Amino acid sequence: MKVGAIVTRIIRQMVRDKRSLALLLFAPLLILTLTWLVLDQESSDLKIATIDVPDSIITTLNDQQINVIDIDKPKSALKNSEIDAIIETAGNSLRITIDDSEPTNSQAIMMKIQQALVSKANVQQVEINHLYGLELSTTFDYVGPVLIGYFAFFFVFLVGGISFLREKSQGTMERLFATPIKSWEIVAGYIIGFGLFAIIQSFIVVLFAVYALGVPLEGSFWNVVLITLLLALAALTLGTLLSTFAKNEFQMMQFIPVVVVPQAFFSGLFNLENAPLWVEWIGNFMPMYYGAEALKEIMIKGNSIDAVVLEIAALIGFSLVFFVLNLGTLAGYRK
Amino acid sequence: MDSFITMNEVSQSFNGEDVLTSINLEINEGEIYGLLGPSGSGKTTLVKTIVGTLKPSSGTVYVQDVEMPSLKKLQDIGYMAQADALYSELTAKENLAFFAKLYGIPRHSISNRIDEVLSQVDLLESKNKLADKFSGGMKRRLSLAIALLHKPKILILDEPTVGIDPILRNKVWNHFYEMKQQGISIIITTHVMDEAEKCDQLALLRDGKIMASGSPSKLKKQTNTSSIEQSFLYYGGVQT
Q1: CB pair distance less than 8 Å for A180 and B88
Q2: Which residues are within 8 A (CB) of B210 and not within 5 positions of it... i.e. 6 or more apart?
Q3: Angle subtended at Cα A257 by Cα A254 and Cα A260, rounded to the nearest 5 degrees
Q4: What is the distance between the alpha carbons of residues A140 and A40, in angstroms, rounded to a whole number?
Q5: What domains sit in chain B, N to C, each tagged with a CATH number?
Q6: ipTM of this complex prediction, to 2 decimal places
Q7: Closest B-chain CA to A331
Q8: For the ranges A109-123, B121-135, B220-234, which has the lowest average pLDDT?
Q9: PROSITE patterns of this UniProt entry (chain A) (predicted)?
Q10: Residue B240: per-residue pLDDT
Q11: In Å, what is the CA distance from B207 to each residue of B19, B35, B52, B218?
Q12: What residues pair up with B27 in beta bridges, in sequence order?
């Protein structure tokens, strides 16, 4: 079968082209590890000064492994970022001043101080509920699931798009058009061929992220692989589609800042809750938005596949639309 | 009509620029038809239009009474493009095997057929070498082997002998004559004048128009010249 011929050829080419293969399979692991090294830090040595605070509270804070230090001029120390927060007594309540120039610090301090004070019954009643009862202690735990999807998307887009483009630049596409192969067979061959590598990639990336980097996985491993794979397919069909609009590899690279990077902004890495509605609305047109949403549902919230049916449908829909558009553009070339 | 390929008032223009103007052409079964012209004269566009990878802007192309472009008819056409369309990561054999499958050659005969065409172009000993490692001439020959693979009734060759040494070129031409004996029609583009002399019929192409056509001897007789090069100059002079 002609589709089979293309699939075999793509597998042969990829296996011979060790660098592209490595880019597809191991570059996501490298970047995930780097992000993990940078983001997976617990804010452990927080320094807090106290002014007129009862000893009992200081003891409680110390119990919570908060570093309460004695310092001469706490207020100026706070300004100089020598300490991270001041706790002082103001009338009947406690006033906490936090150096919020370090966003991760302030979150951590609020959490820790709250935890410390909750255990003290005589201080005002504070109630904290954790909806999912998770122990997400670092930024990486929150963004890990999104990054798994994003890097899979990025590298499949790049490798798939460029090899489809090379077909054009080395003249073989024209040569294919002079054989009795149908356009859909060419595109289908590409999707199956690279789809196989995308399956391997999804499997390796998810396995590595969960078991080596400790990204939380509350739901099913296989559901995560499924979502990552669907994202990769959307990236593949989008990459091959856009490559027909690029004349060379350099022009293909130009699609990265225009098409791939913006997807990161709508993937949940950045909080869009306060953004205008139309900004959120843009996300609806991006595969990454649905992929990231589904990954968070499964990995963080531990939901089953039923909870992400809409996202799965959207990802399949994107792939189908890109596939059909690609057939259209190929038919345009094959005059 | 025994005319195998017929082009009727074919014009081809891209973005308002005329590349071919009112081409009329009749090619008979079992002849070697040469398209002679300098680069930029429209030779490649002309053969692409016959193959059907380009649809004419106006006019019609028929190959054995089938209007081109036709996916089905491609099964009867062997095409060798000007650029060596090879997969550099694959060996000669793997390149051939890929195209063999696209042409639907039965699986069990693929291997034999590959050896056959490779020996025809003198590449049998490089069968398992990566196309990447091939010299320019070897790549041309491998492209030619791909065009021969499915035993087409029509061979369309765009500058097939560029970069091939005279001895091998002679061999390749002998092979063309052999195929002609078998009733295969061959269309060759060239800018080499002495190669044009070897064709049964010639069309002289310049600026997207056919200046003259006929057998090489007829063209020389008409212009009262002793070589195709001189006839070309003659027609070119008349034209301007």
Answers
A1: no
A2: B23, B24, B25, B203, B204
A3: 105
A4: 5
A5: 3-239 (3.40.50.300)
A6: 0.89
A7: B53
A8: A109-123
A9: ABC_TM2
A10: 43
A11: 7, 13, 21, 22
A12: B5
A-chain residues within 8 Å CB-CB of B94? 9, 12
Q: Before B69, cis peptide (omega within 30)?
A: yes
Point out the residue among A9, A171, A178 whose CB comes nearest to the CB of B83: A171
Instruction: Indicate yes or no: CB of A335 within 8 angstroms of CB of B99.
Output: no
Whether the CB of B98 is below 8 Å from some CB of chain A: the reply is: yes
Side-chain half-sphere of B170: how many Cα atoms within 13 Å?
A: 2
Q: Which of B53, B75, B102 sits opposite A5 (nearest CB)?
A: B102
**A332 in contact with B, Cβ within 8 Å:** no
Identify the DSSP state of B125: G
Which backbone phi and psi does B135 adopt, to 5 degrees? -80, 170
Residues 6+ apart with CB under 8 A from A74: A49, A50, A51, A83, A86
Burial B198-225 (b: 16+ CB within 10 A, else e): bbbbbbbbbbbbbbbbeebeebbeebeb
| CA dist., res. A184 & res. A328, Å (int) | 10
Residues 6+ apart with CB under 8 A from A315: A227, A230, A231, A233, A234, A287, A290, A291, A294
Distance, first Cα to last Cα, chain A: 24
Mean pLDDT calculated for residue range A65-90: 79
Residue B154 φ/ψ, nearest 5 degrees: -125, 130
Between CA A315 and CA B101 the distance in angstroms is: 33
Return the DSSP state at B91. B
Q: Which of B77, B78, B81, B61 is nearest to B69 (CA)?
A: B61
**Among chain A residues, CA nearest to B82:** A171
Contact A171 B81 (CB under 8 A): yes
- The pLDDT-based confidence of B152 (bands split at 50, 70, 90) is very high
- Locate B147 and state its tokens: 């065009």
Q: Flag if B99 and A9 touch (Cβ within 8 Å).
A: no
Note the pLDDT of residue A104: 60
Check if A317 contacts B (Cβ < 8 Å): no
Strands B58-63 and B66-67: antiparallel
Nearest in space to B91 (alpha carbons), one of B121, B51, B122, B133: B133
Identify the pLDDT of residue A68: 81
Domain boundaries, chain A: 2-39+138-333, 47-118
Q: Is the pLDDT of residue B82 over 70?
A: yes
